[in-house]
Amino acid sequence: MRSGTGPSGLKVFAAAVVAVTVGLAATGCTGDNAPGAETTPSSASSSAAGPSMTFEEAYRKVPMDGTKDLPITWDLAGAPDTGEVLAARRSLAYNYWLDQATDWTPIIPIGRFVYTEEFNEKFLAPYATTTSDDPLVGPIWVKVMGVEQTGPDQARVTFCTDLGYWHHAQTKDAEVRAKRGTVQSYVMENVESGDGERHWLADRMLDPDVDRQAKYGTACTKWAQHQP
User: Fold this and answer.
1) What is the pLDDT of residue 31?
2) What average pLDDT does the segment 111-128 reach?
3) How far is CA 197 from CA 18, 54, 192, in A?
4) Which residues sit opposite 204 in a β-bridge?
5) Whole-number Å distance between alpha carbons of 182 and 197
6) If exposure means fewest CB atoms within 10 Å of the residue's CB, which of 17, 49, 68, 153 is most exposed?
7) What is the DSSP string of 75-141?
C-alpha cells in the first residue's frame, strides 16, 4: 500500500498481486507514491451489472473532476476523448476517489461498472468495507499522453499525473514532492457486459508504467509543475 494503516487506492490491489506476488507494497510500502505493480487479473470477461443500477447511472456517480479534498484538473490536448479514453479517465478518477475516502462502502460497488468482472472480483470486492483514518488528499493534474490500440477491442491509455501536492490528510504542512510526475497506464477492454451492451472497462492498471517511461517520462516531468 502507499502508506498508512489501511489499504489506500487501487495500488493496494496491485500490491496484493505482488505480495501474492493503489496507493498501493510489496511487503509493506513506506512512501506515499511507492512503486506500484502491474495488476493482471487472468483475462477480461463480461462485467456483471448490478440489478439496481445502469452503467449510465453508475458513471454519473464517479466524480470525474475529483472531490473537494482531491480535485482533478484534466489536460485533454494529447488525444481525443474517445470511448476508451473516457473510460480510462473514469478508471483513474475512480482510483483517486477511493484514495480520498474514509469509507469505501458506497464506492466499491461502482467498481464493477468501471473495471472488468475479474478485476472487480479479485481486487475490489474484497475491500468492500474498508475504512481509512488517513486518506490521501490534495489537488492532482492529469494529462493524456497517448493511446495505443494493442489488440482487438483492447487499448492502452497512458497518463502523466502531477502528484506534487498529493499527501496524507494527517500530514500537516506537507511539502511539495520532489518527484511530481508519474507515468501511469490503463489497459482497456471493450467487452459485452451484463446488460447485453459493450463497454470499455479497465482490466489492468500500470502505475508506474515503466514500459512507457522512456517515451513519456521527460515530457511528463516537464509538464508536472502546477500550482494549486
Assistant:
1) 36
2) 96
3) 33, 11, 5
4) 187
5) 34
6) 68
7) E-TTS---HHHHHHHHHHHHHHHHHT-SB-TTTGGGGGGTB-HHHHHHHTGGGTT-B-SS-EES-EE
Burial of 119 (0-12, 13-18, 19+ CB in 10 A): buried
Residues for the chain: how many in total?
A: 228
pTM of the full structure: 0.81
Q: Is 222 helix (H, G, I), strand (E, B) or coil?
A: helix
CA distances from 225 to 95, 157, 160, 164, 187 (A): 22, 22, 12, 8, 26
Query: Distance (Å, rounded) from C-alpha 78 to C-alpha 165?
Result: 23
Candidates 204, 198, 206; CA nearest to 47 is: 198
Average pLDDT over all residues of the chain: 82
pLDDT of residue 194: 82
- Give the model confidence (pLDDT) of 132-168 as tens digits: 999 999 999 999 999 999 999 999 999 999 999 999 9
In terms of Cα–Cα distance, which of 207, 199, 208 is closest to 87? 199
